[in-house]
Amino acid sequence: MNIKQTNLRHLQVAHSIKYILQLGDNSVSRLDRELLLATAIKRDITWLHTWPEYTLSKEENIKFNSLIKLRADGKPVAYIVGVQEFWSLELKVTPATLIPRPESELLVEQALTMIPLDEKWRVADLGTGSGALAIAIATERPNSKISATDISTEALSTAQDNAQSHHLKNIKFYAGSWFEPLQHREDNFNLIISNPPYIELDDPHLNRGDLRYEPITALTSGIDGLNDIKLIVKQAVEYLDINGVLMIEHGYNQGERVRDIFKDNGFLDIKTLDDLAGHERVSYGRR
Ligand SMILES: C[S@@+](CC[C@H](N)C(=O)[O-])C[C@H]1O[C@@H](n2cnc3c(N)ncnc32)[C@H](O)[C@@H]1O
Q: Which residues lie across from 123 on neighbouring strands?
């Protein structure tokens, strides 16, 4: 039997977990297959490996094959299964939220080196999406008080669900554009973080991979991708304490221009950090 015939049979007949995972499929990676299989049978991946002889029911097999088809058609696995791991936390994601990226953990790492464990730092996360950055920081620094904003009320509602499912009480969510919902704050912030949209309008990557499925308002920011960063850096000055820090994630080729934007707005001690791929990814400066 050739591979094509095997796959056809596989679509129709329910098999064991072991058999399904052994079956090669060029269009869907092994890891994605495991995630989709676990979702189809409502178990986790550890269960799959513990019970490899388990044979799927007819309904589970139909469900699994429908999920595989969505993935083979290009839909991001995080949107199919509805969750994505970030900072070892399981987060709900929907097509209204960006899928949190591993490179954004760099921003969390750096923020944590600055926020003292036992102090009540006031932190703002602008454009919180699924709440990934705010939730990671709130978990690691329970004394901090975090204000998270997003222009998308749908994204914000997902972020709120995520904060609730991780039992976090130290994040407040606000709908509105960048600083606008924070105008009536009690105090200025010790730290402002943001992973804003920063992709250039005509970047060809927008037509490839997961980006095709993510909300365009979470991705692009004008011709050079810097519209929102310019706005955030300019306004941050008014919202930061003296010595407060602004930290921004940006495109791999935007480091120099972002440092200039910080400089033009009077920030001090401006630095940029590289991500694991060696690309300039996060810049920060002190007011
Ligand atoms: C690149 S995503 C980052 C999401 C999340 N912080 C993360 O790192 O996974 C940018 C987010 O900014 C939000 N956004 C876009 N324009 C905005 C605006 N004018 N004011 C507030 N949030 C905005 C989008 O809805 C989106 O959730």
A: 146, 191
Q: Does 64 sit in the ligand 1 pocket, CB within 6 Å? A: no
For residues 224 and 11, what is the distance between their CA atoms, to the nearest angstrom? 46
Does this model's pTM top 0.85? yes
CA angle 193, 195, 201 (to 5 degrees): 145
CB-ligand 1 contact for 153 (6 Å cutoff):
no
Residue carrying the six token digits 């990676």? 29
3-class secondary-structure state, position 241 = strand
CA of 194 to the centre of ligand 1 (A): 8
The 10s digit of each residue's pLDDT in 15-25 is: 899 988 887 66
Contact 260, 280 (CB under 8 A): no
| Residue bearing tokens 């995630």 | 35
Distance from C-alpha of 205 to C-alpha of 210, rounded to nearest angstrom:
9
CA proximity to 191, closest of 150, 146, 257:
146
Alpha-carbon distance of 254 to 227, in angstroms, equals 12
